[in-house]
Write a structure and sequence with these properties.
By secondary structure, this protein is of the alpha/beta class. The chain is built from eight helices and twelve strands. The protein has a six-stranded parallel beta sheet with strand order 2-1-3-4-5-10, with helices on both faces. A two-stranded parallel sheet has the order 6-9. Strands 7-11 form a two-stranded parallel ribbon. Strand 3, helix 3 and strand 4 form a beta-alpha-beta unit. The chain is globular, with a radius of gyration of 19 Å. Keywords: NADP, Oxidoreductase.
């Protein structure tokens, strides 16, 4: 089995690639210096030469590139997966969200992901679209929640974490496992991946805190909304279990 993966210089793709490799999937990174994403001929030749079983579009790419790759995969019987985001929903609204919830984001990033989703659906009826939330890693150095918090402490000396905000989030390892499971056990379609069942951002930050980090965490109340996504078809370890806060009660 082979998989082309975009975004290998990012946060999610390297963890997904590592998980797939452990399950005997050969990973072929999409190197944009070799295969420019604005060159349709180069993209077509790359995909059809490699003939992967899967193409996971995890990195950023223009909507036009996304549409083209999704179409080529459909025409060549290659399973295509696109990672979208909870950010397709407006921050001015509040969830929780399900697969029936209508995306309504109007910011640049949310509109970009919404457009990609729409274009994919138009050209590849067999595509997998997986919306994910804020990713949690084990350390700083990449675009994940821990990195954000470490930098916030460096800047301000403390973290003010809202006790009124329920974010969609998952640990990178759990996200990778879930993407693998979706591709290998589920039919194509839209899926929502979120590990947060009932914890506020304040709870989660305290769960990530430890004696080594020793963050100064203050309780806040902004933002006040529910960004959680729920999908009964998805089995993923809860963030409370991952962080060992199953039995703590939010105040």
């Amino acid at each position: 089995m082979k998989a082309i993966i975009t975004g290998m210089n990012g946060t999610v793709a390297p963890v997904v690639a590592s998980y797939f490799e452990k399950h005997d999937v050969e990973i072929i990174p999409w190197d944009r210096s070799v295969v420019p994403t604005d060159n349709e001929q180069a993209m077509y030749e790359f995909i059809t030469r490699v003939k992967p079983d899967f193409l996971l579009h995890i990195g950023m790419g223009s909507p036009e590139m996304t549409e083209f790759v999704a179409r080529i995969c459909f025409q060549n019987n290659i399973t295509f997966l696109f990672t979208s985001t909870v950010s397709v929903f407006s921050e001015s609204g509040s969830g929780p969200y399900t697969v029936e919830s209508e995306p309504n984001a109007e910011d640049d990033y949310g509109l970009y992901k919404r457009k990609c989703e729409r274009l994919i659906k138009e050209v590849n009826k067999d595509a997998y679209i997986v919306r994910i939330g804020w990713q949690i890693g084990d350390q700083a150095g990449s675009n994940n929640m821990v990195d954000f918090l470490v930098n916030l402490v460096k800047e301000k000396g403390y973290i003010e974490a809202s006790n009124k905000w329920y974010p969609s989030c998952s640990h990178l390892i759990d996200t990778a496992k879930t993407i693998y499971d979706i591709l290998n056990t589920k039919d194509s379609g839209l899926y929502l991946v979120n590990s947060n069942q009932n914890r506020t951002f304040y709870d989660i930050v305290n769960g990530l805190n430890n004696s080594e980090r020793n963050w100064n965490v203050k309780k806040g109340s902004n933002p006040s909304r529910d960004d959680r996504m729920f999908d009964d078809r998805i089995q993923i370890q809860s963030i409370a279990t991952r962080l060992g806060i199953d039995h703590e009660v939010n105040e």
